[in-house]
Amino acid sequence: MAKYVGLMRGINVGGNRIVKMVKLRDVLTGAGFHSVQTYVQSGNIVLESDGDETTVRTEMETLCASAFGFDIPIILRSEDVFRAEAAACPYAGPDGEPLDGRLAKFLQLTYLSALPDMSMLEDVLTRYRGPEEVSLQGAVLYVYYPEGAGRSELANHLTPKKLGATPTSRNWNTVQKLLGMLAG
User: Fold this and answer.
1) For residues 73 and 120, what is the distance between their CA atoms, to the nearest angstrom?
2) What residues are paired with 38 via a beta bridge?
3) Nearest to 140 by CA among 119, 165, 161, 103
4) Of 6, 21, 25, 87, most Cβ neighbours within 10 A?
5) Which segments of the chain are extended strands (E)?
6) SS3 of residue 1 by DSSP
7) Any residues with CB less than 8 A from the CB of 106 and at least 6 apart, and which?
8) CA 102 from chain center: how many Å?
9) pTM listed for this prediction
10) What is the pLDDT of residues 75-109, one digit of tens each?
């Protein structure tokens, strides 16, 4: 049985598209997923399944649409891929701590549903000049927001229309918590 991390996009923001984690766990467990765990209200899921990644993601999205009444994009990663993506973070050391005394809450990983359209990403990064540091590795944008993501205009440009792939971001502390859940 394989472990997966599911990252839901665009739920529980500003009182819209509400998904209660208790109901989400019940829906997924009722559908046959195992060891379903959630972390905070932004739709972070760790679960086990015998299915392959595409089947698991499709089933999760279908179940959520039926249970909650709206489509919810889910970025799904196998345990190995999720661990490798975290380990590849250029702004964190081998111990998982952010480099150069940076605060973990200012470090985000923007997980993409697919490789971004490079010309679109370059256009975003060329048009926007700010204090952020951005590194793309595979289907993850590693972004250090020295003034916080909430104050950054770059965060507003990381959209499906501007990247050619569906993004969802998690801060470094959440990534570390999900890694711990995978180990448990």
Assistant:
1) 21
2) 45
3) 165
4) 6
5) 2-8, 34-39, 44-49, 74-78, 107-112, 133-137, 140-144, 167-171
6) coil
7) 98, 144, 145, 146, 147, 148, 149, 171
8) 21
9) 0.92
10) 999 999 999 999 999 987 776 676 666 677 789 99
